[in-house]
Amino acid sequence: MFEDEFGVSYVEAVSFTWAPVGETPILKRHGRYRRETSTMASLTLSGKIYKRHFDGSINSEKIIEGLKHLRCHIKGPFIIIWDQSRTHKSLIVKAYLEKHPEIHVAYLPAYAPELNPEEYCHGNVKRRMKNAVFHSKAEIRKSLDYGFARLRKRPDILLGFFQHAGLEINQLL
Questions:
Q1: Among residues 44, 7, 26, 32, which one has the least CA distance to residue 141?
Q2: CB count, 10 Å around CB of 124?
Q3: Where do the H-state alpha helices sit in 28-83?
Q4: Fewest CB atoms within 10 A around its CB: which of 73, 78, 80, 103?
Q5: What does 104-140 look like in DSSP terms, one character per residue?
Q6: Alpha carbon distance, N-terminus to C-terminus of the chain
Q7: pTM score, two decimals?
Q8: Cross-sheet strand order for the sheet of 37-43
Q9: Whose CA is closest to 58, among 82, 31, 30, 79?
């Protein structure tokens, strides 16, 4: 499975929108932190999406919590493919992985997010959240959950993420 983390805040980027002639649309945003909620998401070759939300930014302890979440849902050994972030290579994550030989790890080349199909997956979810005004972390998480649920029903889109990352697969397993 391909894994990545991303953050969402109350002040996400805005995009063009429609409004009545002569009325500029105004979005009133709440909060001031860069990352109100972070999500660790994984995309498998079979098209399954696993996710775990966290408050604030991702750190090594949250990575381990996310790995425990994956172990609860995936029976047997699995390979996780992720970038070379410091949290993935931290001593406590390495220690956790040594205790769990059923989790095999492969690293993507440095600074190559375009090779990770999960980047396109969460990018699709976040793109649909532009111009949304959230009043709570619960609303942010609900919107994220809805976005991933929508993608789970669209294997054609998920297949496109793999193809866009340069993986030559013609169907999900």
A1: 7
A2: 18
A3: 60-73
A4: 73
A5: EEEEPPTT-GGG-HHHHHHHHHHHTTTT---SSHHHH
A6: 12
A7: 0.86
A8: 49-55, 37-43, 2-8, 78-82, 103-107
A9: 82
Range 69-89 burial, b when 16+ CB lie within 10 A, else e: ebeeebeeeeebbbbebebbe
**What is the helix (H) or strand (E) element at residue 103, kind and residue range?**
strand 103-107
Which tokens belong to 79?
């390979």
Name, in order, each residue with C-beta under 8 angstroms of 155's C-beta and a sequence gap of 6 or more.
47, 172
Per-residue model confidence as pLDDT tens digits over 73-94: 998 999 999 999 999 999 999 9
Which of 6-10, 14-18, 168-172 shows the lowest mean pLDDT across its residues? 14-18
Question: With helix as H, strand as E and coil as C, how does 153-171 read?
Answer: CCHHHHHHHHHHCCCCCCC
Specify the pLDDT at position 15. 67
